[in-house]
Amino acid sequence: MFAEPEFWVAVAFVILMAVFAYAGHGWSDGNQNFIVGTDAPAIPHGKNALELIALVSRGMSPLAVLRAATVTAAELIDVTDRGRLAPGLLADVIAVPGDPLQDITVTRDVRFVMKGGKVFVQ
Fold this sequence. Notes:
Shape: globular
Strand content: 5-15%
Radius of gyration: 15 Å
Oligomer: single chain
């Protein structure tokens, strides 16, 4: 009934590139505030790793993608109690079997989840 997620990721990416081109900015010059994890239909809920992988495959660095999912997202919604790991802040923590800075696809294999100080998956 609905198109595959990869189709919607591609559509969202084309729209994003058009917006950047219109605004006169390049994809990798670091001047854009970009976040991941929206409720847009491009990526089904709970499949955020697919968004991270798609963005890296289209030219964003893994570090930029991970920041867009954490620090930058918190900054753009104007909250100071999350988005970073630090004492006294809200933190949801995951662990994956590898280094996502070297291979972003490891984010598909979450082996540990902690939310609000409580372990949910170990």
